[in-house]
Amino acid sequence: MDLGKEVLELRRNLYPPIEPYSSGFLTVSDIHSIYWEQSGNPNGHFRMFLAKNSIILPPNPVVFIHGGPGGGTSPSNRTFFDPDFYRIILFDQRGAGKSTPHAWLVENTTWDLVNDIEKLREHLEIPEWQVFGGSWGSTLALIYSQSHPDKVTGMVLRGIFLLRKKELDWFYEGGAAAIYPDAWEPFRDLIPEDERDCLIDAYHKRLNSDDMETQYAAARAWTKWEMMTSHLHPNEENVKRGDDDAFSLAFARIENHYFVNKGFFPSDSFLLDNIDKIRHINTIIVQGRYDMCCPMMTAWDLHKAWPEADFKYFKVVPDAGHSANEPGIAAELVAANEKLKNMIKNGRP
């Protein structure tokens, strides 16, 4: 099929809401248990007809890796995938969402999460799977794939975040403030002037205070700053998440914990330095042109280091910011999954 024609014909509408057919908790350490669920197709009813023979293809498993870190999953995450084709696995990372203990930082590192994904794959008896991740989810998708390239059949990445110093400085040390000064000032002003030389460190102190109200106040301010800047057009429902103390505490504490520790990576360019390990994996990148949280410079750096990672389909959405729920971003994420689905159905590598 002609590539241009195929791109135009791909479905771009979200699929209808569905419910999980199974769920549970997986103990991944002496401290942590992670929530997981499965929805979509558990049995593989898709048929491909070759001559007079019918071949039943097993469902294609896909694991959804949420952002933050600390953001957790939501039911709407299931709707990016064709439920007749995909076996859809969602899970909440350590301390996030329904996972326990809530907002807990001990034994909570990038490498712990990579190991958790593998434990979950083995627990669900999945030989290999497609990986889908946006924002921090793209970070974790990349490092998981680099650690276990033989277990990944393809990737869809959105709002690329490589957790480098220049990216953290852009969002937390004043870069994005040039576009959103009204949202920036409440975030900045929670911190006394004499502590503003590094806002991530200043927030770390408060998010780990012995006083819970200090933690909650810092968590609300941290979360609202990100929620107010994650859509091209203001989204009040998203901003209100900052008022949810349970959500904002996990979101802010875990996110800040990872950023203070530089993602637990040995070097600033670690993900880019290891692209050769995953260069062969079919990957589609979706990026909002006006993404304030994970600006396009990062997706562009990844694209230049990994030009194969686009199938000639590195999609820049011209009228979108950061959120996967923005119409243009959501449409291209569905289309990306449809493209990978078609490649599998057509027997293309």
What would your notes on this structure say?
This protein has 349 residues and is an alpha/beta fold. It is built from twelve helices and ten strands. It has an eight-stranded mixed beta sheet, sandwiched between helices. A two-stranded antiparallel sheet has the order 3-4. Strand 3 and strand 4 form a beta hairpin. Helix 2 (110-123) packs across helix 3, helix 5 (181-189) packs antiparallel against helix 7 (212-229) and helix 6 packs across helix 9 (245-260). It is globular and about 60 Å long. The model is unreliable at 1-5 and 44-52 (pLDDT under 50).
Low-confidence stretches: 1-5, 44-52
Helix content: 25-40%
Distance between the termini: 15 Å
With strands numbered from the N-terminus, the spatial order across the biggest sheet is 1-2-6-5-7-8-9-10
Structural class: alpha/beta
**What composes the largest sheet?**
8 strands, mixed
Question: What is the helix tally?
Answer: 12
Portion in beta strands:
15-25%
Rounded to an integer in angstroms, the radius of gyration calculated over CA atoms is 20 Å
Total number of strands: 10
How would you describe the shape?
globular
Mean pLDDT: 92
Order of helices and strands: HEEEEEEHEHEHHHHHHHEHEH
Oligomer: single chain
Question: What distinguishing features does this structure have?
Answer:
single chain, 349 residues, alpha/beta, two-stranded antiparallel ribbon
Topology:
Layout: H1 3-9, E1 22-27, E2 33-40, E3 47-50, E4 53-56, E5 60-65, E6 86-91, H2 110-123, E7 129-134, H3 136-147, E8 152-158, H4 165-172, H5 181-189, H6 199-207, H7 212-229, H8 236-240, H9 245-260, H10 270-273, E9 283-288, H11 296-305, E10 315-317, H12 327-345
Parallel strand pairs: 5-6, 5-7, 7-8, 8-9, 9-10
Antiparallel strand pairs: 1-2, 2-6, 3-4
Helix pairs in contact: 2-3, 5-7, 6-9, 7-9
